[in-house]
Design goal:
The chain has about 350 residues and is of the alpha/beta class. The protein has 16 helices and seven strands. Strands 5-4-6-7 form a four-stranded parallel β-sheet, with helices on both faces. A three-stranded antiparallel β-sheet has the order 1-2-3. The structure holds adenosine-3'-5'-diphosphate. Keywords: Transferase.
């Protein structure tokens, strides 16, 4: 559809087949070989995570990362949305898609693709969709500029993205809300045969860096440092900042992506309309996001929970807050980054 008009539903292995670790037949010999040499940590959805190039991955994720590294050939005009999991990726995808495609799909349009498609289907993940499960994507029908997304840490990005200096929008969120959102999300995906993960365990693992694409702080720092060196190639955004000043950030995003709003559009209220289209209230109440499923098996509704800043106050104890703040202060010391 739209940016990536291909359907991968038929080649996708249902999520349920990954819910046990006897997934031997799904893992390539190359990945298996590598896994045997990697550190193993406790998982969130499944039992284990594997540490590759300093970051923690599920088996499926790892295989997708390896496939991207080996096969993905970027084009200089590609636009890449990168985020830490649960930082508002769904929101960013919706906004970027709506901005880039607004001449094809007017934001007031009753037939706008965002009204009938989850943003993850419109802006596909490289490692979790396009290259997942040994899939070889066909890019022939992609509309240019191609919009992709990924959670891959900077160090593990496919070389062509770095070499061609593709524009990257990076989104992160304060670690306390990220942790709470990740905890809720992973419990939704956890097989019924496993006990739900308690917040205390999630907290321990997150603080120890053993979380999906974690350590969280290293992920953020990797892109933060790059954004300081190459601000023309990497736009660094925080969820909270967008919530605070949505119009300012939507304009910034549009400008960075190469699709600034014209004076006429400003006068017509396109910025406001586009924000409304992509808002939590609008997207989370659409039929597709209430009852639909992604082709990879996740329920669309699992990507919309509360969409608030500061929900961590309801879940973390004062000791947890203190410890997490201490880690964040220590890890970001001298970087200029604050949450
Ligand atoms: P909460 O769990 O705190 O509610 P991701 O998209 O990276 O998976 O992140 C999911 C988080 O972003 C969830 O946070 C979700 O509710 C929130 N979210 C999803 N769509 C949003 C939107 N349009 N606006 C603001 N927040 C949104």
């Amino acid at each position: 559809m739209a940016t990536s008009p291909i359907s991968l539903a038929s080649v996708h292995v249902p999520l349920s087949r990954y819910l046990h670790e006897d997934q031997e037949e799904l893992i390539t010999p190359e990945c298996k070989d590598l896994m045997s040499s990697l550190s193993r940590g406790k998982g969130w959805v499944l039992i284990h995570l594997y540490q590759y190039q300093g970051f923690w991955h599920t088996t499926r994720q790892l295989q997708g990362v390896l496939a991207c590294q080996k096969m993905f050939q970027a084009q200089a005009t590609d636009l890449i949305l990168v985020s830490t999991p649960k930082s508002g990726t769904t929101w960013l995808k919706a906004m970027a898609f709506a901005i880039v495609n607004r001449n094809r799909y007017f934001c007031y349009d009753d037939h706008h693709p965002l009204l009938t498609n989850n943003p993850h289907e419109l802006v596909p993940f490289l490692e979790l969709k396009l290259y997942v499960d040994n899939n070889v994507p066909d890019f022939t029908n992609f509309v240019h500029p191609r919009l992709f997304s990924t959670h891959i840490p900077h160090i593990s990005l496919p070389e062509s993205i770095k070499d061609l200096k593709c524009k990257i929008v990076y989104l992160c969120r304060n670690p306390k809300d990220t942790l709470v959102s990740l905890w809720h999300f992973t419990n939704k995906l956890r097989p019924k045969t496993l006990e739900p993960l308690q917040i205390e365990e999630a907290f321990e693992r997150f603080c120890g860096g053993v979380s999906l694409y974690g350590p969280f702080w290293d992920h953020v720092l990797g892109y933060w440092k790059e954004s300081l060196q190459r601000p023309q190639s990497i736009l660094f955004l925080k969820y909270e900042d967008i919530r605070d000043a949505p119009k300012v950030h939507l304009r910034k995003l549009a400008e960075f992506l190469g699709y600034p709003f014209s004076l006429e559009e400003e006068k017509e209220g396109v910025v406001e309309e586009l924000l409304k289209l992509c808002s939590f209230d609008n997207l989370s109440n659409l039929e597709v996001n209430k009852v639909g499923k992604l082709s990879s098996g996740e329920e669309c509704s699992s990507f919309f929970r509360k969409g608030e800043v500061g929900d961590w106050t309801h879940y973390l104890t004062s000791e947890m807050i203190e410890q997490l703040d201490m880690i964040t202060t220590k890890m970001f010391k001298g970087s200029g980054l604050e949450f």
